[in-house]
Amino acid sequence: MTYDAVILGAGHNGLVTACYLARAGMKVLVVEKNDWIGGAAVSRELTPGFTYSNCSYVASLFRPEIMRDLELPRHGLQILPYEGGAVLQEGGGYLGMFRDHDANRREFARHSPRDAEAYDIYSRDVLRHCRFIRPLLLRTPPDPARFRPRDMGELLWIGKQVSALSEAQIAGMVRFWTMSISDYLDHYFENPVIKAYLAVSAIIGTALGPMSPGSAYVLLHHYMGDVDGNIGAWGFARGGMGAITRALASSLRSSGGEIRTGAAVEKVLVKGGRTTGVVLEGGDEIRAKRVISNMDVKRTMLRHVDEADLPGDYIASVRKFKTRGSSGKLNIALDGVPKFPALPEGSTALKGDLHFTDSIEKMERAYDDWKAGHFSRDPFQDVMIPTMIDPTMTPPGKHFMSCFVQYAPPKIEGRDWTDADRDAFGQTCLDQIERYAPGFKNLVLHVEVRTPRELEAEVGLTEGNIFQGELTFDQLLFNRPVPGYANYRTPVRDLWICGSSTHPGGGVMGAPGRNAAAEILRDAKLSVRDMSDAWAVL
Amino acid sequence: MPGRFSDIIVIGAGPNGLACATRLAQKGRRVTLLEAEAAPGGGARALPDLAPGYRSPALAHLIWQFDPRAEAAMDLSRHGLEWAAQGIPTTVLSPDGPLTIRGGLAEGPDAGAWATLYQRMLCFAGALEPFRRMTPPRLAKDNSWGQLAKNLLKLRALGTHDFRELLRVLLINAHDVAQDELTDPRLRAALCFDATLGAWAGPRSPNTLILWLDRLAGQIGGQRASLGMPKGGMPALAAAMARAAEAAGVTLRQGARVARIVTDGERVSGVTLADGGELRADLVISAIGPKSTLLDLVGPRALDAGLVTRLRHQKSRGGAAKLHLALSAAPDFGTDLHARMILAGDEHEVESAFNPVKYGEVPERPVMEILLPSAFDPGHAPEGGHVLSATVQFAPHDPKIGRDEARAAMLEASLARLEAAAPGIRRMIVRADLLMPYDIERQFGMAGGNWHHGELTVEQMLFLRPIPQLSRYATPIRGLWLTGAGTHPGGMSGAAGWNTAGAVLEARQ
């Protein structure tokens, strides 16, 4: 039999694409190399009784439009907002963060009254940038080098959005898109801890430091999400990040789609410039009218497509696509809640994210280590204990702690990571937490340490890059993943890419998967009944 | 207000002030050009006293670009300008041995790759160059739409493939391009060094390749991306420009330091000099830097609070130090001294030299651009001796350990590197002088010691330069205009001055 579409990889984007295609009546099969689904949005039991979100750990970027279209709440998805957060300072102080803007403002005032004032203006400005960029997320980027009516129409549409802004706002936006977060925050704030807290979103997952130009955009990328309509608010998925992909899988099955796990793709079949299906490892052949890859563009094209079937300059561009990993992860099973003496009794900070990096300089120095090919000696960690909000992930009284670590390079001084490197990296992170929570190490029941090496081997992210490609301007919008191919197509007819290496990029957002589905359905001349405001220019 | 009256006062006789004053005078305006120092030139001035018999350019020692309009109109050869050298090659000094680059020609295994990359970048630079010649576009009404459309069409005329590539690399970092396209660490070093020369950024910082494109966009005497050194050094260029200005009718007053720009309410009425003298004019153009002009000479009280805040936040960190050595003999760098030498082994060295500067520290292994003006023009040093002029990167503008300590540490680090590259050079030193960014700020009035009177970065370029409200050379005070390196397109090519004169003439019509 021949499928209408076979999707390579059961990550969230692959599943989103599959869901939309199945809903439009296509016969869809998702093949996944691992024995479980989810890609980097997974919940796994790695030690008995404990569920780990062992890759991605927060849900806020996931587009609400997709949740509605695919009825994910009905399929079991529930997002629980963070309730707090804190930066623990060297020497015992702390900066708390709260869900409520006014509470934050009061907390800022404790550190700097001037910055509390500035916080209102800053929030307003960042919100304006978010509002501008959000409509762009669910649209296929136009190709500015082509004179096709649709590209021209789309460019005009963007031009119209821009011209609706005032001159000062446009200038502000261009600056925001090109500046470093450090310089940007200097315009508003004076207190180093406040700046360190606000700079976090600009470095998460990025091979940039807070002083690198372009990092302010990365902050925006993380702020575009919303939980319950609060822009920039972050939340947990009940049951871990795997709840998102489980809900997607359930939604897919309810529309008649199939998923095969333990089915790794060997090769995409190409005949006369068009794909006819895939061969799995082990030799099984699956015939399909179209193949859609949720793997990153490098993995798809350089590993699973014959070089002879691709134009030389396309391959050269794919090779230039930057996928340097910069993050690691510790997943820890705990025997109880660690005590952070700096935090007041009953603080809500443990129901959100904890940081131990109290200045931008420390963050930047952590990045300098990465540039030199080392993991950071004093890394930035985004630590949270999701079980403080969602007790379903562990046995009663026990806890799961997720530590996202910045920076860890794809290679150590140019050579591959060894187990000893990985353990040293893990120890560095544990030691840092112990400094702020004496006795913490005694609570540890199990630790999983993940470096870019593990992320590549298990999840399939080339060089362990969590965004399937760095988020710098040379790789955004019409440049993502490759100039001329930002419309989810490839030089091979009917071979598509739907993962995070396409516009608008990484994070558990679902937008690339949805946009790819829109293009595929449009190409197949099928209706997109269920898709909310699918496209602007038809 | 008493005092002499002229049509226009231009403050600051650097290359931009000179170009601006000349163009206005050629259009029949009565122009007085005020220079605080005893000689014109600004960043192209001479260093007063290195050592007896030794002459060195104080800051700029080479010219990358001279605005072709100013060049044509000022006719400098008639006013005494001669070239000691043009099309100066670049030699990268490295433990792997020196490598000489002449434009797109480089020796070694990467010759083909370098030629391809260089030609492509030169082509992009050529397509971007027309933007340097226009008043930055506005994003609203009153735009020069015709000019903008023409420039944009020129970009599109690169062809689909090249246009796409330009859009990809426009905001990319220099490091990635060097690694993608080149294998020879010396060529990578050259690209990364030139992309960050004078900037407060390492080559891994996004938005650095465009700085290289901006360099390649320049020309002198119709030669694109050609390095030149005038006979007598850069001060001789300044002197020739001053003669051209005077020939056009500009009244040049040296040693005339402006203490205040006088405004009555909303408009400018003249200037007060430090010696108490007063000059009247209803048009004042300042080339000494947006911050110095508005915050110091006009004063925040006469300005909108929002504008003052924006201007204070404008980034103006200098990252380059200037080293002068008077040498008793010719140093041995193992290569021909008739070159601009870059002392940086690979792209990582350039980045590593920037790292400590982010934290206000002195790098242990700075990288540098070295020129021996005396190799091209013997008048710079006594018989047998040499003058070495180097731009040393990167240097902190606000060092944590204190200014004198930082200067001493920077000098020692620089000399140690030079000694490794040219063994024995330390014993030849008659006199050494190092200007840190804060010294440059003090001596040249450049905010933060930044050559461009404000960092030349993407977020402070074109219609964002120096800040969005001031990007079209006019200020909110009627009759007061800004020009100079702090305004679009930056640099000392005279382009900013020429553009400003054009904008002033257009507004006056």
- Please identify which CATH superfamily of the domain at 4-46 and 62-81 and 234-315 and 448-507 in chain B we are dealing with: FAD/NAD(P)-binding domain
Rounded radius of gyration of chain B (Å)? 22 Å
| Percent in helix of chain A | 25-40%
Structural class of chain B: alpha/beta
Largest interface: A-B, 38 and 37 residues
Q: What is the count of DSSP helices of chain B, taking H or I runs of 4+ residues?
A: 16
Strand order, sheet with most strands of chain B: 7-6-5-17-18-19-16-20
Task: Give the second-level CATH assignment, the architecture of the domain at 4-46 and 62-81 and 234-315 and 448-507 in chain B.
Answer: 3-Layer(bba) Sandwich
Global shape of chain A: globular
Helix content of chain B: 25-40%
Please state the overall shape of chain B, judged from the principal axes of the Cα atoms.
globular
Strand order of the largest sheet of chain A: 8-7-18-19-20-17-21
Question: What's the short version?
Answer:
The complex is a heterodimer of chains A (538) and B (509). With 538 residues, chain A is of the alpha/beta class.
Key phrases:
heterodimer; A: 538 residues; alpha/beta; FAD/NAD(P)-binding domain; 2 domains; seven-stranded mixed β-sheet; five-stranded parallel β-sheet; 17 helices; 22 strands; 36% helix; 18% strand; globular; disordered C terminus; B: 509 residues; eight-stranded mixed β-sheet; 16 helices; 21 strands
Question: Would you write up a description of this structure?
Answer:
The complex is a heterodimer of chains A (538) and B (509). With 538 residues, chain A is α/β, with parallel strands linked by helices. Chain A folds into two domains: 2-41 and 60-77 and 238-320 and 471-523, FAD/NAD(P)-binding domain, CATH 3.50.50; 80-237 and 323-462. Helices cover 36% and strands 18% of the residues of chain A. Chain A is built from 17 helices and 22 strands. Chain A has helices at 12-23, 64-69, 101-111, 113-137, 149-163, 167-178, 181-186, 192-203, 215-223, 242-254, 297-304, 312-320, 360-371, 419-436, 440-443, 452-459, 511-523; strands spanning 2-3, 5-8, 28-31, 44-47, 50-52, 79-81, 84-88, 94-98, 226-227, 230-231, 235-237, 258-260, 265-271, 274-280, 285-288, 291-293, 327-334, 352-355, 380-384, 399-406, 444-450, 495-497. In chain A, the strands form six sheets. Chain A has a seven-stranded mixed beta sheet, with helices on both faces. In chain A, strands 12-3-2-16-22 form a five-stranded parallel beta sheet, with helices on one face. In chain A, strands 1-15-14-13 form a four-stranded mixed beta sheet, with no helix packed on it. In chain A, helix 8 crosses helix 9. Chain A is globular and about 65 Å long. Mean pLDDT of chain A is 93; it is low at 534-538. Chain B is of the alpha/beta class and 509 residues long. In chain B, the strands form five sheets. An eight-stranded mixed beta sheet of chain B has the order 7-6-5-17-18-19-16-20, sandwiched between helices. In chain B, strands 11-3-2-15-21 form a five-stranded parallel beta sheet, covered by helices on one side. Chain B has a four-stranded mixed beta sheet with strand order 1-14-13-12, covered by helices on one side. In chain B, helix 1 (15-26) packs parallel to helix 16 (495-508). Classes of the chains: A alpha/beta (538), B alpha/beta (509). At the A-B interface, helix 6 and helix 13 of A face helix 5 of B. Chain A: Pfam families: Amino_oxidase. Chain A: GO terms for molecular function: oxidoreductase activity. Chain A: Keywords: Oxidoreductase.
